[in-house]
Amino acid sequence: MNSIEIFSGAGGMAKGLELAGSKHQALVEWNANACNTLRMNYDQNLIFQGDVRDFTFADYKDKGVDIIAGGPPCQPFSLGGKAKGSNDERDMFPAAISAIRTLMPKAFIFENVKGLIRKSFAEYFRFIILQLTYPEIALESDNWHDNLLHLQAIDRQQGYTGLRYNVSHQLVNAADYGVPQKRERVIIVGFRSDLHIDWKFPKPTHCEDALLWAKHVTGDYWSRHSIANTSNAAISKAIVQRLTAKYGLRTPELMPWRTMRDAFVGIGEPKGNGEHSLRKGARAYPGHTGSDIDEPSKTIKAGDHGVPGGENTVRLTDGSIRYLSVLEAKRIQTFPDDYAIAGAWGEAMRQLGNAVPVQLAHVVGKSVINMLKTAVYKNFDHHTRYASPP
Fold first, then answer.
1. pTM attached to this predicted model
2. Active site residues
3. Tell me, what CATH number does 317's domain have?
4. Which domain holds residue 296?
5. What is the 3-state secondary structure (H, E, C) of the chain?
6. Tens digits of per-residue pLDDT, 78-91?
């Protein structure tokens, strides 16, 4: 499956799709440091450094682009930002929709922050979804509210004959898919309706209850890491009572959430130089307590000036905290160890904080690609040995 990644950033979505079987045709990104990261990991001829609105998607019409994917800038909708939404010049959903309109790929995958679905953005989010559903519909007004009314009227009609997409969206927690990080994100997936694909979001593979069970019921978590159980006895007793009342003697079916300690196996404490060097100066104070090493990390964030309020630090067993190394942050975001990140610590952490977790992109991407392969097979004429155009 051929893909184009827009708003590629450090390449989390791109790497996940690559591992799922996608072949990149282009990686589009404006940030110079992120582009340097992409060049260190991909063929530099694939990389377009610049504004996505200046990228000529029409040049790729004959290359069979099956998937367009990416994470439009989240700042307009972030809970921690100014939340200007459609009034923010960084809102790039119009550019993403324009790419779909030009290439009409078989499918698309977009990722954004939880804030995108907050109540104050409900109408604009509906506008985004309807534009992705009916990309061939021309928008005739400069006012998006008027265009929303027009699209809603079309959506209520029966018998629309133009090309459309079946669009799904869901708020997911990356920890539920094997990422050692509590990271809630909105995933938007669309399939061209002429492919007749009935797709559902992949079911979670991991859960918090399974981690609690391994810690407090069986103790497997502690024995697996060859360390003493550090749980508070009273809290542990209450958790055991709740879990046994819910599951009886049966272990939760899903796998345990992965913790930071799980992610850091084999790399030891930071030292020396390079991506796993120790950065000093971290301290704890109210609102800046770090992430417990025996829990999934808090959401790794970029921040306006590098390091936000504690999310990029780890709290060790003795209660002390320290900054994450770049290698540790890569593991939390499920990048391969050999995936290079350009720039010094602050810049590397900014890129990693903005990235889509590779494992999450892989899970969603694999599900999408498998469905597309099934659709292609169904449209294949086994007598004349050619694929009917979907």
1. 0.91
2. 74
3. 3.90.120
4. 247-353
5. CEEEEECCCCCHHHHHHHHHCCEEEEEEECCHHHHHHHHHHCCHHHEEECCHHHCCHHHHHHHCCCEEEECCCCHHHCCCCCCCHHHCCCCCHHHHHHHHHHHCCCEEEEEEEHHHHCHHHHHHHHHHHHHHHCCCCCCCCCCHHHHHHHHHHHHHCCCCCCCCEEEEEEEEEHHHHCCCECCEEEEEEEEEHHHCCCCCCCCCCEEHHHHHHHHHHCCHHHHHCCCCCCCCHHHHHHHHHHHHHHHCCCCCCCEECCCHHHHCCCCCCCCCCHHHCCCCCCCCECCECCEECCCCECCCCCCCCCCCCCCCEEECCCCCEEECCHHHHHHHCCCCCCCCCCCCHHHHHHHHHHCCCHHHHHHHHHHHHHHHHHHHHHCEECCCCEECCC
6. 444 443 334 445 57
